[in-house]
């Protein structure tokens, strides 16, 4: 496994693989790797001949300096895990490599329509930072396929639109959320939970499952469902940030044409902001009426 921190040697190796006709898969990460990340790496291995993983804590997507400073960094452990998976290259650029002239005057990539809604409305600039760094990494690695987890549902939507809008020849491979035995979505931030908080954290996924079951049962009073979900979170000691029920394909409010919805939730538990989501198949009113007539 090669560990490369600079762009020139990375591009040199990529060019060599291209000449050999190798298919390249890419997994961008911010490190502090867990089984969810390893699932992305294994999916990448299935999709290509060689796998490149990046580890870079991107300051452009953090709104608060203390959140950036407290983000877990476990490079030695991360490299050991990736080496065990047979990853060919781990790209570990510094902030100076990624933003040599600083971030203030750096060109940015903005994905309109998706970056400023939902999660983007409560974290201004977050998705612009994500889209910018992912675009840079795509240009450096030039992968055939890139793997992203569905846990960050809106981020995945942003990346899909970015690739489509910029006509990038990259296949985006979504990978299902990996969960702990009690349902908690795996996240690098989970290690910051206290023992008591960790015991209460699965309430977020439990609440999502409850909302989803209500929707499958025919409830369409989405505003009331959100309020009920917030009450369940508060009862367990979580502080709701956002719960949204949206069309899974557009992230816009549900319409009569919606066939798949997504329930997106974020809540604070102590100092940690947890996020999760579940998709729900729903029957449009017209289809439901037709079935009843039959």
From TrEMBL:
Reactions it catalyzes: (R)-pantoate + beta-alanine + ATP = (R)-pantothenate + AMP + diphosphate + H(+)
Protein name: Pantothenate synthetase
Cross-referenced Pfam families: Pantoate_ligase
Taxonomic path: Bacteria, Pseudomonadati, Pseudomonadota, Gammaproteobacteria, Vibrionales
Residues that bind ATP: 30-37, 149-152, 178, 186-189
Entry annotated with the keyword Cell cycle: no
Function summary: Catalyzes the condensation of pantoate with beta-alanine in an ATP-dependent reaction via a pantoyl-adenylate intermediate.
Subunit-level organization: Homodimer.
Active site: 37 (proton donor)
Keyword annotations: ATP-binding, Cytoplasm, Ligase, Nucleotide-binding, Pantothenate biosynthesis
Places the protein is found: Cytoplasm
CDD domains (alphabetical): PanC (cd00560)
GO molecular function: ligase activity
Top-rank taxon: Bacteria
UniProt: beta-alanine binding residues: 61
Organism of derivation: Enterovibrio qingdaonensis
Residues reported in the UniProt entry to bind (R)-pantoate: 61, 155
Functional pathway: Cofactor biosynthesis; (R)-pantothenate biosynthesis; (R)-pantothenate from (R)-pantoate and beta-alanine: step 1/1
Enzyme class, broadest EC rank: ligase
Family as reported in the entry's similarity comment: Belongs to the pantothenate synthetase family.
EC number: 6.3.2.1
Miscellaneous note of the record: The reaction proceeds by a bi uni uni bi ping pong mechanism.
């Amino acid at each position: 496994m090669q560990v490369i921190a600079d762009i020139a040697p990375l591009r040199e190796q990529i060019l060599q693989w291209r000449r050999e006709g190798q298919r390249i898969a890419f997994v961008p990460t911010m490190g502090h790797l867990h089984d969810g990340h390893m699932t992305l790496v294994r999916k990448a291995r299935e999709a290509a001949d060689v796998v490149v993983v990046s580890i870079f804590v991107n300051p452009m997507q953090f709104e608060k300096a203390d959140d950036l400073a407290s983000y877990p960094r476990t490079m030695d452990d991360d490299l050991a895990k990736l080496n065990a998976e047979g990853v060919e290259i781990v790209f570990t650029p510094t902030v100076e490599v990624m933003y040599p002239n600083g971030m203030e005057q750096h060109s940015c990539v903005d994905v309109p329509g998706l970056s400023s809604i939902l999660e983007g409305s409560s974290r201004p600039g977050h998705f612009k930072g994500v889209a910018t760094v992912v675009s840079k990494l795509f240009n450096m690695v030039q992968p055939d396929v890139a793997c992203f987890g569905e846990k960050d549902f809106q981020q995945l939507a942003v990346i899909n639109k970015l690739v489509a809008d910029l006509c990038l020849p990259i296949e985006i491979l979504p990978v299902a959320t990996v969960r702990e035995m009690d349902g908690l979505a795996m996240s690098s931030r989970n290690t910051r939970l206290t023992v008591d908080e960790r015991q209460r954290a699965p309430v977020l996924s439990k609440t999502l499952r409850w909302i989803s079951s209500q929707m499958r049962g025919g409830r369409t009073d989405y505003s009331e469902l959100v309020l009920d979900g917030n009450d369940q979170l508060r009862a367990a000691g979580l502080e709701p940030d956002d719960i949204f029920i949206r069309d899974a394909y557009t992230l816009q409010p549900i319409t009569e044409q919606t066939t798949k919805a997504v329930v997106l939730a974020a809540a604070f538990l102590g100092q940690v902001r947890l996020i999760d989501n579940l998709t729900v198949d729903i029957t449009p009113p017209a289809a439901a009426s037709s079935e009843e007539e039959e």
